[in-house]
Design goal:
The complex is a heterodimer of chains A (436) and B (433). Chain A has 436 residues and is an alpha+beta fold. In chain A, 21% of the residues lie in helices and 33% in strands. Chain A has 2 domains: 8-195, PmbA/TldD fold, CATH 3.30.2290; 209-435, no CATH class. In chain A, the strands form 5 sheets. In chain A, strands 8, 9, 10, 13, 21, 22 and 23 form a 7-stranded mixed beta sheet that branches. A 6-stranded antiparallel beta sheet of chain A has the order 3-2-1-4-5-6. The longest helix of chain A has 17 residues, at 109-125. Chain A is globular. By secondary structure, chain B is of the alpha+beta class. Chain B contains 7 helices and 23 strands. In chain B, strands 7, 14, 15, 16, 17, 18, 19, 22 and 23 form a 9-stranded mixed beta sheet that branches. Chain B starts with 6 loop residues before the first helix and ends with a strand. The chains are: A alpha+beta (436), B alpha+beta (433).
């Protein structure tokens, strides 16, 4: 148990004293986090363990929302936070009772410690050796939301992250486990970058791009997920006005489904305590349901809550993707290659950014390969893919028949970082600009 | 400064040393902050009280690091060490320094923060009809920290800052502006609104500069200083800086002076000691256009006296790392901006960056979206619209013809400052060209 001794009913009663309208978003959020880190060999300071806990109280009235957070799980901290958001505390109300005990969490230290050796072995199998500084981390976050009327189940996310510093750039990965399969997959990515390290970038222009599942997932994260987040949509108009719009090529079905995320990071409720939904962002290319949290759903009633996620107790919930899915199309590998002949095969993207105001995005490609006569050809070095969301979504020429878990990574929104997950097939896109 | 902070650290370090760790260090930090955010979703007000700690312990062969929220524990289940070294500095006497006078003052209340945003909204609408705030974020925070080590280091510090981030819109143009101060009450709504208005008007224009003179206003020049900072930090800096140097090995124009000062009295990050307890001080990195020294952590300096005091901790969770604190290009106290504008003659007056400065690490080539006004006979004329300023960092430093006295800082990974500069050797183009 992450919060032994927590009495949700008592917390709900205390919250109920300050909540005027139970329909308004309000809750107490309890959080415990652990990050265990194995630094690179030779790095100053060895094994690193970070543990944090705390709580936040949120209260909304009309168009105003208040949040108070504390780095403690005590009755006093809860009372202070309640007082701060409510500005008044009923004179007769007792200080809330909160006695949360320590939780014993076993850090998977053996798994973390074994991974560098596993990776080294996989690199040797690929006849590759190069300088690298590898950091291995394990992350766990436990949370419990308590509302004035409902108490959803506790939630947990636990996963690993890898960060390799190479002479030609960084390479990162999120993973649920750290077994042989993860070592092999990461070694394949590192070797691809190693072999493309001196390759020249492609000539600038507009060529067909075959985005492998990992690259397709990151591209859609920028072009669909961020573009359909209610708070970002509201900057340039009414989010509800987008419902029913033809947003992309008709074959594109994109969902966000936190409950379908890989085991260990799947969610049944979001960070506001709302049940998650299998949300069709695009159905046959048409906008069906943007990503919304409780605040957005209250302001725009046609939007569904269930995607309010926070970076931590000190941050506010925001509409965010958790697990993005692009449904497979019908193209075989040969057909994908043929559709992108003369273009570039992009196995992965290093990062992506979207300017929500203009719809322009930039995708950073660490390395790729030319597609020559329907087959992967010579490597090309680092370059960028630029375009507008409409160009990317309107330029989809083929969708692969097989989807896979791919493209998981860190998403930073408003300076707040959280892990996001995805499942996608490969995708052929035409008309985007390629530039060194 | 609280007397409590640091007391537990001393007890813990003594306990760890007794338990066999050769070296140990305890860091404690606590802070409070207020945030008020306005946007299309409504208004969001938050307060946070944060407290945390970090401990490092070990020797030259084995070590560990632990951190947590709340009060520093005197005993805990510490991590098993791994084969990584730990080295900690010896104590050095700090220079005289006092915490910002405003540190103990209460943070702005919700109604004060709201009044500030209302005032900026009002001034913006009055100065430029049709302009509106798309979103606004006010933050104010104060923190204090304490550091104790088994080597005898005992340091404390305190900081306070208020920031305002505004997005203003008019006629399909959007600008984002940030401003910083010790306290919210130092922020001037009219001055902030006028900065936004200048940039919106500049973006709406389509004037073409007739001359080649480039006047780079202080906030934009400060962003170039920020882009330059990686070339000035660490043992590798002399070699990297020499790659930027022009003829005769000169990094900048004659008279150019670049300074980092962790103890800068007027600086938001001002402190007596850095994140490892090394005294902060003023260090000239470039003098008369010539590279003099890099910023060095104590563990890479040839002697303790050569250490720069340039190690910072982003939070209690983070390990200390080298970084500039207040890195700035010194101006000429005799030269005001109006004189510099008059001296420029015909050309362009670039008032701010409209995006981040993109730099190629290998070559030092940079480009940044900018806006400003055309200059004719030393007078500002029509807005230039969105332009792109490009060149090399070496070419920029070597091309500084004059610097005014209006030293202005912007925040990034540290604070970066510059006065308004008259420069040669940079290209001003249109986006996409």
């Amino acid at each position: 148990m992450a919060f032994p001794g927590l009495d949700p009913a008592a917390v709900a009663r205390s919250l109920g004293l300050v909540v005027g309208d139970a329909e308004e978003p309000s809750e107490v959020y309890f959080e415990r986090r652990i990050e265990a880190e194995l630094p690179p060999a030779g790095a100053p300071v060895g094994f690193r363990l970070r543990r944090e806990e705390g709580l936040a109280v949120r209260l909304a009235r009309g168009e105003r929302t208040w949040l108070a957070s504390r780095d403690a799980l005590t009755g006093r901290a809860l009372a202070e936070a309640l007082r701060q958001v409510a500005r008044v505390w009923p004179a007769a109300a007792p200080e809330p009772e909160l006695e949360i005990g320590d939780s014993s969490v076993a850090v998977p230290r053996d798994q973390i410690a074994a991974f560098p050796g596993r990776l080294e072995l996989e690199l040797r199998r690929r006849l590759a050796a190069f300088p690298m500084r590898l950091t291995v981390r394990w992350h766990r976050r436990d949370l419990q939301v308590v509302g004035p009327r409902m108490v959803p189940p506790p939630e947990r996310e636990a996963f690993f992250s890898l960060d390799a510093e190479l002479p030609w750039g960084r390479c990162g990965e999120l993973a649920i486990g750290l077994g042989a399969a993860e070592a092999a997959a990461f070694a394949t990515r590192l070797v691809a970058r190693f072999r493309a390290r001196e390759a020249p970038p492609p000539e600038p222009g507009r060529v067909p791009l075959l985005l492998a599942p990992a690259a397709a997932a990151v591209a859609l994260h920028e072009a669909v997920a961020h573009a359909l987040e209610a708070d970002l949509m509201a900057r340039s108009g009414q989010p509800e006005a987008a419902l029913g719009l033809d947003f992309s090529a008709p074959g594109l079905d994109v969902l966000d489904d936190p409950s379908a995320a890989p085991s260990g990071v799947e969610r049944t409720t979001d960070d506001e305590g709302s049940g998650v939904v299998r949300r069709w962002l695009l159905r046959a290319g048409r906008v069906e349901q943007p990503i919304a949290d409780a605040t957005a759903a209250r302001r725009w009633p046609r939007l569904l809550p269930g995607s309010g996620f926070r970076s931590g107790r000190h941050g506010r919930p925001r509409p965010r993707t958790h697990h993005l899915e692009l449904l497979p199309g019908g193209a075989t590998e040969d057909e994908l290659m043929a559709a992108a002949d003369g273009g570039l095969l992009v196995a992965e993207l290093a990062s992506g950014t979207l300017d929500p105001a203009s719809g322009r995005f930039v995708l950073e490609v660490p390395a790729a390969r030319r597609i020559e006569s329907g087959r992967p050809g010579a490597p090309v070095g680092r370059f960028r893919i630029l375009g507008r969301v409409a160009e990317l979504l309107g330029g989809v020429a083929a969708i692969g028949a097989t989807a896979e878990a791919a493209g998981a990574g860190w998403c930073a929104k408003a300076g707040e970082r959280r892990a996001v997950w995805a499942r996608a097939p490969a995708l052929v896109v035409r008309g985007l600009e390629v530039r060194a | 400064m609280s007397e409590v902070l640091g007391g537990r650290g001393r007890g813990l370090v003594a306990g760890l040393a007794h338990a066999g760790a050769l070296d140990a260090e305890a860091y404690e930090k606590r802070g409070r902050s207020r945030r008020l955010e306005r946007g299309p979703e409504g208004e969001f007000s938050s307060t946070a009280v944060e407290a945390g700690w970090a401990v490092r312990a070990g020797d030259l062969r084995h070590s560990w690091f632990a951190s947590g929220a709340g009060e520093l524990p005197l005993a805990a289940s510490w991590p098993q060490p791994t084969a990584n070294p730990l080295w900690l500095p010896e104590p050095r006497p700090p220079a005289p320094w006092s915490a910002p006078a405003a540190f103990a003052a209460p943070l702005a209340g919700e109604s004060e923060a709201r009044a500030l945003l209302d005032a900026v909204t009002r001034e913006l609408a009055r100065e430029l009809p049709g302009a509106r705030l798309g979103s606004a974020l006010f933050e104010e925070g104060a923190s204090e920290w304490s550091l104790v080590s088994s080597r005898g280091v005992a340091a404390t510090g305190a900081a306070r800052a208020a920031t305002l981030r505004l997005v203003a819109e008019r006629n399909a143009h959007t600008v984002t502006a940030e401003t910083w101060a010790f306290e919210a009450r130092e922020m001037k709504p009219l001055a902030v609104a006028r900065r936004l208005v200048d940039r919106l008007l500049a973006l709406e224009g389509g004037a073409r500069p007739h001359g080649s003179a480039l006047l780079v206003a202080a906030p934009l020049a400060a962003r170039l200083v920020e882009a330059l900072s990686p070339w000035l930090i660490g043992r590798e800096a002399p070699a990297r800086a020499s790659a930027l140097a022009g003829r005769g090995g000169r990094l900048g124009a004659p008279g150019l002076r670049l300074v980092d000062d962790g103890a800068l009295a007027s600086g938001l990050l001002s402190s007596a000691s850095d994140g490892e307890g090394i005294p902060c001080r003023e260090l000239t990195l470039v003098e008369d256009g010539r590279f003099v020294r890099p910023l060095l952590a104590w563990w890479e300096a040839e002697s303790p006296a050569a250490a720069s005091g340039c190690v910072r901790r982003a939070s209690y969770r983070d390990l200390p790392r080298r970084a500039a604190t207040h890195l700035y290009l010194a101006g000429d106290p005799r030269l005001g901006v109006p004189e510099l504008v008059a001296e420029a003659g015909d050309g362009a007056y670039l008032i701010d960056a409209e995006g981040t400065v993109a730099v190629e690490p290998a070559s030092g080539r940079f480009s940044v979206a900018v806006t400003g006004f055309a200059l004719e006979s030393g007078r500002a004329k029509g807005g230039l619209g969105r332009r792109v300023l490009a060149g090399t960092l070496g070419g920029w430093l070597g091309g500084v013809r004059a610097a005014a006295r209006d030293l202005t800082f912007v925040a990034g990974d540290g604070m970066f400052g510059s006065p308004t500069l008259l420069v040669d050797g940079l290209d001003l183009g249109v986006p996409g060209s």
